[in-house]
Specification:
The protein has a five-stranded parallel β-sheet with strand order 3-2-1-4-5, with helices on both faces. The chain contains six helices and five strands, in the order βαβαβαβαβαα. By secondary structure, the protein is of the alpha/beta class. It has one domain: Rossmann fold (3-Layer(aba) Sandwich). Bound molecules: adenosine-5'-diphosphate (ADP). The site of adenosine-5'-diphosphate has 19 residues, from α1, β4 and α4.
């Protein structure tokens, strides 16, 4: 049984994240999407909202579950009884960032393995921050996010939380 953790902010989940989740669900037996709860980070959606939006989005993928976590990612991964992390990478700046986090995590726990999945070219320009920026100015983000997120963004309007 290969279980992998996909940690992130997911503020909110985009079609780029969803593509990574779907591909991971075909490689691994179980995928846990883990939404980081970091009270110091300003987010548009609360952690509960972010978890609920992902749950709604992945409800038809049987081997994917969603939860939130606080504290160090490596501790959460260990509590989940696995040592595997996946992250996505769109370009060279993502690569440098992801390499730093992966190295840091293996310094904290040398059993942790981080695997990178390259963004699909159709989704490589999509980021949560770009989606929020376009939405803030009432632009159309329907191509970039799953439908539950589209509805939530409309309901949220242009007001940042915190
Ligand atoms: P972070 O956890 O760094 O705050 P996100 O929650 O936006 O960032 O993303 C979680 C993970 O998904 C990161 O590894 C990020 O590189 C990756 N990711 C974000 N957008 C995409 C995309 N469009 N395609 C593939 N991977 C992505």
């Amino acid at each position: 049984m290969k279980k992998v953790i996909y940690p992130g902010s997911f503020d909110p989940i985009t079609n780029g994240h969803l593509n990574i989740i779907k591909r991971a669900s075909q490689i691994f037996d179980e995928v846990v999407v883990a939404v980081g709860n970091n009270p110091d980070k300003k987010t548009l959606f609360s952690v509960t909202e972010r978890v609920d939006l992902i749950k709604e989005t992945v409800k038809d993928i049987s081997n994917v579950t969603v939860t939130d976590y606080s504290g160090l990612t490596v501790n959460f991964v260990r509590k989940q009884r696995t040592n595997l992390i996946i992250r996505g990478t769109r370009d060279s700046s993502d690569f440098v960032f992801e390499k730093e986090i992966a190295n840091l995590n293996s310094l904290l726990d040398d059993q942790i393995e981080t695997m990178l999945i390259f963004a699909n070219k159709d989704y490589e320009l999509i980021s949560s921050s770009m989606v929020k920026e376009i939405n803030r100015f009432n632009g159309d983000v329907s191509k970039f996010v799953p439908s539950p997120v589209l509805a939530a963004l409309k309901a949220k309007g242009s007001h940042e939380k915190n």
